[in-house]
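We store sequence with structure; for instance:
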Amino acid sequence: MENVLEIVLWGVFGIVSLGVIVLAAIVLTVSLMSHRAYAEEGRLWQQLQASGCPLQGVAVSLVRSPSGYSRRGPVGQRMTAVQLGVAYVDADGVEQQTTLRTLIDEDLLAHFSAGRPDIHLLQDPQDPSRLAIDRRHTPLVIRGARR
């Protein structure tokens, strides 16, 4: 009787342990997918610094990530994942609108509220649908003081 109870308890322990491992894997996967989705715009900006076509845009919407993703910034600030709607006029003079997924310092979010001007963009000359915020002219992070 004692052996049967021990077997049942070990079976329950195994099932619970497996459930915890599966749950941890799901959380890790969702977190990595969120990070990748919101970090991609920053990587594109790095690529376009030398060859991107500069454009001027205006924020038309600002929505936090549906997953609530955020992370620590380079100097300890909180970087919030957002979907930023931007209206701009492309190189051909046609008015366009796009949504950029990016990470913005929480203290700078008000600068990106709808209707605020001066969002500088870089457009990929090879693929005009690819846009990134030009961080040289529109900062997304408050830099730390140098010592």
